[in-house]
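Hello,

Following up on my earlier ticket. Below are the two sequence lines again, exactly as submitted.
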Amino acid sequence: GQNIDQPTEMTATEGAIVQINCTYQTSGFNGLFWYQQHAGEAPTFLSYNVLDGLEEKGRFSSFLSRSKGYSYLLLKELQMKDSASYLCAVRPHNAGNMLTFGGGTRLMVKP
Amino acid sequence: NAGVTQTPKFRILKIGQSMTLQCAQDMNHNYMYWYRQDPGMGLKLIYYSVGAGITDKGEVPNGYNVSRSTTEDFPLRLELAAPSQTSVYFCASSLDSSTDTQYFGPGTRLTVL
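Thanks for your patience. The regenerated structure is below:
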């Protein structure tokens, strides 16, 4: 089966750095995605990791360790607009393009 | 490009009623998906399609049906609505590359009373 765990909620201060963790146990692995979802809106793509290491994209970075079944999303210089849910999703091996999603982490950025 | 569009945005159904949620994409994507998202939860895959005429079950297919007669459209059918189907439904699409991201529609908020 597939199991993806991430914290339910996090709170951080504007201008700070926050790290959102995701651990997974899946029947295979063919990539990990992070999506951002503002309340009442559709998820939008943030990042994709398939090899170990850090992928940086502006204020957002995503890290993957396949041996540990672990990823994190790092958000720097937090802004109020970063308040949203962050969804970790894994593509199990040989599953075509299907994704298995975690429950999401709701991030609240405070002034 | 409009991307992925969904109709309706909101709908209230009575138990036992049926309805079709519409989804269309204009990006010539082969893969299309239907997810449901319950409050405070992640997305669960209902059905997916890898191309016109081909559909398959996801994680939670019971109570739903789909069809894919064209590349652009992927409607989701609820035959006998139940309160457990109260949820937000998202349609998504992607190219057929295994590394491609999924693009989501705006969602349909369905309440079954």
